[in-house]
Design a protein that fits this description.
Distance between the termini: 31 Å
Shape: globular
CATH superfamily: NAD(P)-binding Rossmann-like Domain
Number of domains: 1
CATH topology: Rossmann fold
Number of helices: 8
CATH architecture: 3-Layer(aba) Sandwich
Strand order of the largest sheet: 3-2-1-4-5-6-7
Radius of gyration: 17 Å
Bound molecules: 1,4-dihydronicotinamide adenine dinucleotide
Strand content: 5-15%
CATH class: Alpha Beta
Helix content: 40-55%
């Protein structure tokens, strides 16, 4: 089952597009007709993915980006504008996780998680919004939060705090930027199978986790397509400051 959306004429920036959710979402948006900039620190990886999309007939470019470096953020947004035109959709996907217990969490880890997941998302959103405003175009910003921004689990204190911050940031930016025609929403995925976590999710601990999800399965990358296309496209023209949870019911699991 897929939602059809026509994103032709839209220019998309996807951060952290070298793997996992970011790469999948970049492909989904490109296949819906958008021109896509795949941004990541590992330039050679996004270059290969952009070439593969171009071979399919899409318009895609690769852009170097470290979201924790404000100069890199400014340069990346300028590069998107020069190569494809002003961005009209941003998918703020770059993020990192950790598995430390709070008592052992180092200041470095805490800072790095918040710098990437929260501050990084803010600086990319702001640079993109400025480009939209300067060009006189509105747009849609989709922040990739997590169900861990809405409920907690063990060993994810900094991650959960950063994602909760991202949810509130989504609301704050939606409020301030509505006057510029910029919508800001968040996706809150549950546990989605990717190359990085597949091994853990199939372990005994992973299977115990799965048993607590009402739909009794982990998310698939394709499960994000409909909600992403909805938020990215004009189909959600009157939706801003919202969080769409995509988790098979995990958040409403029984106490
Ligand atoms: P991933 O590790 O495959 O993707 C994260 C991407 O962000 C990578 O491409 C990485 O290079 C990039 N990145 C990290 N730090 C960066 C930086 N400083 N500058 C630029 N790029 C940077 O992991 P995954 O699972 O695809 O995660 C993507 C997003 O989805 C993250 O924000 C994560 O928190 C979120 N998420 C993932 C879930 C899952 O189950 N996989 C569930 C809920 C949310």
């Amino acid at each position: 089952m897929s939602l059809r959306a026509d994103l032709s004429g839209k220019v998309v920036l996807v951060t952290g597009a070298s793997s996992g959710l970011g790469l999948h979402m970049a492909k989904t948006l490109a296949r819906a007709g958008a021109k896509v900039a795949l941004a990541a620190r590992r330039l050679e990886r996004v270059e290969a993915e952009a070439r593969a999309l171009a071979d399919e007939g899409a318009t895609a470019v690769a852009v170097p980006l470290d979201v924790t470096d404000p100069a890199s953020v400014e340069a990346a947004v300028a590069r998107v504008r020069d190569a494809l035109g002003p961005p009209t959709i941003l998918v703020n996907n770059a993020g990192i996780a950790h598995t430390d217990r709070a008592l052992e969490l180092t200041p470095e880890t805490f800072r790095e998680v918040v710098a990437t997941n929260l501050e990084g998302a803010f600086y990319v959103a702001r640079a993109t919004a400025r480009a939209m405003i300067e060009a006189g175009v509105g747009g849609s910003i989709v922040n990739v939060a997590s169900i861990l921004g809405l409920r907690v689990a063990g060993r994810v204190a900094a991650y959960a705090a950063s994602k909760a911050g991202l949810v509130r940031l989504t609301e704050a930016l939606a409020l301030e930027w509505a006057r510029h025609g910029i919508r800001v929403n968040a996706l809150a995925p549950g546990y989605v199978e990717t190359d990085l976590n597949r091994e853990f999710l199939s372990s005994e601990a992973g299977q115990a986790l799965r048993a607590r999800i009402p739909q009794r399965r982990f998310g698939r990358l394709e499960d994000l397509d409909g909600p992403l296309l909805l938020l990215a496209s004009d189909a959600s023209a009157y939706v801003t400051g919202a969080v769409i949870v995509v988790d098979g019911g995990h958040l409403v699991s029984s106490l």
